[in-house]
Amino acid sequence: MMETRVAIIGIIVSEPEQASRLNAVLHEYGEYIIGRMGIPYRQKGIQIISVAIDAPQTVISALSGKIGRLKGISAKTAYSDVITKPET
After folding, report:
1. pTM across the whole model
2. Three state DSSP letters for the chain
3. Rg for the chain (alpha carbons), in Å?
4. Which residues contact 84 (CB under 8 A, 6 or more apart)?
5. How do strand 4-13 and strand 73-84 relate by DSSP bridges?
6. CA 66/CA 19 separation, integer angstroms
7. Residue 38: beta bridge partners?
8. What gap in Å lies between CA 61 and CA 75, rounded to an integer?
9. Quick check: 50 and 36 in contact, CB under 8 A?
10. Could you give all domains of the chain from N- to C-terminal order, each with its CATH number?
11. Contact 14/68 with Cβ under 8 angstroms?
């Protein structure tokens, strides 16, 4: 087991047709996701999504990077100081 960290990934979806691609990426990392919340902001035509994750730093970075490379989607990650060390 590797050291894990708790983080939040904030996602803005400005092209709704990309939602299925985003969901596929999130499903790929499902074992690390604690929970997610989505809010449609209809007046602006966007979706606001937050994803709580507990994973190794490399996994969090990979997920955030994959999301950020999707057309019409931006992502930013905020890391907590909550780190779980591997048991020896």
Report:
1. 0.91
2. CCCEEEEEEEEEECCHHHHHHHHHHHHHCHHHEEEEEEEEECCCCEEEEEEEEEECHHHHHHHHHHHHCCCCEEEEEEEEEEEECCCC
3. 14
4. 3, 4, 5, 54
5. antiparallel
6. 13
7. 49
8. 11
9. yes
10. 4-84 (3.30.70.1150)
11. no
User: What are the pLDDT tens digits along the chain (88 aa)?
Assistant: 789 999 999 999 999 899 999 999 999 999 999 999 999 999 999 999 999 999 999 999 999 999 999 999 999 999 999 889 987 6
9 neighbors 51 (Cβ within 8 angstroms): yes
87: its two tokens: 């048991």
- Distances in Å between the Cα of 17 and the Cα atoms of 23, 37, 47, 80 are 11, 18, 11, 31
Return d(Cα 82, Cα 8) in angstroms, integer.
12
| Chain position carrying tokens 């894990």 | 4
Tell me the C-alpha distance between 8 and 33, whole Å.
10
